[in-house]
Amino acid sequence: MQQDTDGDASEFARAKVNLALHITGRREDGYHLLDSLVVFPEIGDRLRLLPGAPPLSLTLGGFFGPQLSQARPDNLVLRAIEALAGACCQPPLRAGLLLEKNLPVASGIGGGSADAAAALRLAARMTGVDLPQAEWLALALSLGADVPVCLEQKAVRMSGIGEKLHPAPPLPPAGIVLVNPLKEVSTPAIFRALTQRDNPPLPALPSSFGSCGELAEWLKSCRNDMQEAAEALCPEITEVLAALGEAKGSLLARMSGSGATCFALCAPQDAASIAAGIEKSHPEWWVASSGKIR
Ligand SMILES: C[C@@](CO)(OP(=O)(O)O)[C@H](O)COP(=O)(O)OP(=O)(O)OC[C@H]1O[C@@H](n2ccc(N)nc2=O)[C@H](O)[C@@H]1O
Ligand SMILES: Nc1ncnc2c1ncn2[C@@H]1O[C@H](COP(=O)(O)OP(=O)(O)O)[C@@H](O)[C@H]1O
């Protein structure tokens, strides 16, 4: 499995952004079938080893750390490490961990899933265990529908309930701005609130995108089928979308996942100025930008 290490004992857990998210059906067990173009910006949590901390403990830092309870064994980081140990029939990683939680919680950008995937990568690297690719994916899926896509953190077309991953066409240079009104949105609640679950899949993807403008034009023929239900439950999303859509340089504004985080796609050089403008007009929102997506 590919690591994302910056050469030290840490893993970067990038936010997952659904540039388009079509809900195309529902399985008998209630899980929804998706068709989604997923990308990863240079915005994320960081999971690192914490020397001197008792094994296997999790310390929470970062702006959003206090929102996740310190000692809770249900944190996806700890669940991922225990699950890997179970799958390999080995004792779990004997180390203390620090999660720098920079991404808002329950926000449609898969922060918990990204952390779980980062934990799998870090534990695999530290313990030397390895599994066939299909087993990594099955293990990831057992932790959450969004965890498989977060393992590789590369642009993909994701379908099934999240387990079918097909490489996306090469992406053009593009920037992205993420904005969250700091209202938690429950993923199951938005799935439950959907009124239509058999929408058409994504239109055919081109073999490549010549520019971020071309990518934005293609995305305009797509949707986020969870957006309407999320706006009804969390009206701040409509305000966020308006601010992102009106910003100079914004090529497309849309919600990611089940919300409430929304994004603007833009040219790489415009991301920081769009973010600065929104931060100024709405200091109460969480705003982050990246001049790169992958
Ligand atoms: C909607 C998406 C789109 O990428 O993103 P987020 O809003 O979470 O970021 C994901 O499918 C979310 O994946 P994830 O958050 O990992 O879901 P899970 O923990 O596996 O499931 C939480 C609950 O969501 C519902 N669920 C999830 C995935 C799916 N394909 N169909 C569903 O119906 C189920 O009710 C499930 O009990
Ligand atoms: N490391 C983690 N980071 C965020 N949420 C976590 C984590 N571990 C467990 N959770 C739980 O998972 C739920 C979904 O969180 P998150 O992945 O941030 O949502 P979303 O996929 O909508 O962005 C939260 O309500 C939280 O209680």
From TrEMBL:
<keyword id="KW-0808">Transferase</keyword>
<feature type="domain" description="GHMP kinase N-terminal">
    <location>
        <begin position="75"/>
        <end position="151"/>
    </location>
</feature>
<dbReference type="InterPro" id="IPR004424">
    <property type="entry name" value="IspE"/>
</dbReference>
<dbReference type="Pfam" id="PF08544">
    <property type="entry name" value="GHMP_kinases_C"/>
</dbReference>
<feature type="active site">
    <location>
        <position position="16"/>
    </location>
</feature>
<keyword id="KW-0418">Kinase</keyword>
<dbReference type="GO" id="GO:0050515">
    <property type="term" value="F:4-(cytidine 5'-diphospho)-2-C-methyl-D-erythritol kinase activity"/>
</dbReference>
<keyword id="KW-0547">Nucleotide-binding</keyword>
<keyword id="KW-0414">Isoprene biosynthesis</keyword>
<dbReference type="Pfam" id="PF00288">
    <property type="entry name" value="GHMP_kinases_N"/>
</dbReference>
<feature type="binding site">
    <location>
        <begin position="104"/>
        <end position="114"/>
    </location>
    <ligand>
        <name>ATP</name>
    </ligand>
</feature>
<dbReference type="InterPro" id="IPR006204">
    <property type="entry name" value="GHMP_kinase_N_dom"/>
</dbReference>
<comment type="function">
    <text>Catalyzes the phosphorylation of the position 2 hydroxy group of 4-diphosphocytidyl-2C-methyl-D-erythritol.</text>
</comment>
<comment type="similarity">
    <text>Belongs to the GHMP kinase family. IspE subfamily.</text>
</comment>
<feature type="domain" description="GHMP kinase C-terminal">
    <location>
        <begin position="213"/>
        <end position="275"/>
    </location>
</feature>
<dbReference type="InterPro" id="IPR020568">
    <property type="entry name" value="Ribosomal_Su5_D2-typ_SF"/>
</dbReference>
<dbReference type="InterPro" id="IPR036554">
    <property type="entry name" value="GHMP_kinase_C_sf"/>
</dbReference>
<protein>
    <recommendedName>
        <fullName>4-diphosphocytidyl-2-C-methyl-D-erythritol kinase</fullName>
        <ecNumber>2.7.1.148</ecNumber>
    </recommendedName>
</protein>
<feature type="active site">
    <location>
        <position position="146"/>
    </location>
</feature>
<dbReference type="InterPro" id="IPR013750">
    <property type="entry name" value="GHMP_kinase_C_dom"/>
</dbReference>
<keyword id="KW-0067">ATP-binding</keyword>
<dbReference type="InterPro" id="IPR014721">
    <property type="entry name" value="Ribsml_uS5_D2-typ_fold_subgr"/>
</dbReference>
<comment type="pathway">
    <text>Isoprenoid biosynthesis; isopentenyl diphosphate biosynthesis via DXP pathway; isopentenyl diphosphate from 1-deoxy-D-xylulose 5-phosphate: step 3/6.</text>
</comment>
